[in-house]
Amino acid sequence: MKKFEEVKSLVAALEADADKFYNKGNSAAGTRIRKGMQDLKNLAQAIRLEVQDTKNKA
Fold first, then answer.
1. Do residues 39 and 13 lie in contact, with contact meaning Cβ atoms separated by under 8 Å?
2. How far apart are the first and last CA of the chain?
3. What is this structure's pTM?
4. Which InterPro entries does the record associate with it (predicted)?
5. 53 CB-contact burial (10 Å; exposed 0-12 / middle 13-18 / buried 19+)
6. What count of Cα atoms within 13 Å lies in the side-chain half-sphere of residue 51?
7. Which tens digit of pLDDT belongs to each residue from 24-36?
8. SS3 47
9. What total of structural domains would you count in the chain?
10. What secondary structure does DSSP assign to 6-46, as a single string?
11. Residue 13 in contact with residue 32, Cβ under 8 Å?
């Protein structure tokens, strides 16, 4: 459950940069969003593997 909370926290942290990129045209914010999305992808994969492992052990 800890990793799921990290996902929620990461998405909330990216919200401000998304606003800057999409509404204000700040390209540096776009770079931060891309990095954050890559981190989110890796975290989501880790959660998938953890869930699959837990499911298989049950």
1. no
2. 17
3. 0.83
4. Hc1 (IPR010886)
5. exposed
6. 10
7. 999 999 999 999 9
8. helix
9. 1
10. HHHHHHHHHHHHHHHHHHH--HHHHHHHHHHHHHHHHHHHH
11. no
